[in-house]
Design a protein that fits this description.
5 helices
């Protein structure tokens, strides 16, 4: 069964080539996950049907319907061949992760918490 990402205390970004960002994030002590293609889409499955599991993402979408557009956008980016980087970062750690992602041309950057999604503008 595929693990469904719950996105608690996470920063996500879309990158074409994340290798430099990943190296710098890991050097700074962050746990980083790279999502690619269909496997990445299953990992953030908004339908929550992978393996019969009901995902935390689905519960959040049901509670805050607007977040569905975030997941759908990430799916579209994965379909386009881009990569989604997921960085475990508490609220206190998120600013540095965002800085690193921006420095490496990260786009569509979001800080995600248990009950909040915050888009990071330019």
């Amino acid at each position: 069964m595929t693990h469904i990402h719950d996105f608690d205390d996470t920063v996500v970004a879309v990158l074409d080539d994340p290798s430099e960002a990943i190296s710098q994030l890991r050097a700074a002590g962050y746990e980083v996950e790279v999502l690619r293609g269909d496997e990445g889409k299953e990992h953030i499955d908004p339908a929550g049907e992978t393996g019969g599991a009901v995902s935390t993402v689905k519960r959040l979408i049901n509670a805050f319907g607007d977040q569905y557009r975030v997941i759908e956008h990430l799916h579209d980016e994965l379909d386009a061949g881009r990569q989604v980087i997921s960085v475990d970062a508490t609220p206190d750690e998120a600013s540095e992760a965002v800085r690193i992602l921006r420095e490496h041309d990260g786009e569509y950057i979001w800080k995600l918490g248990k009950w909040t999604y915050t888009e990071i503008g330019d």
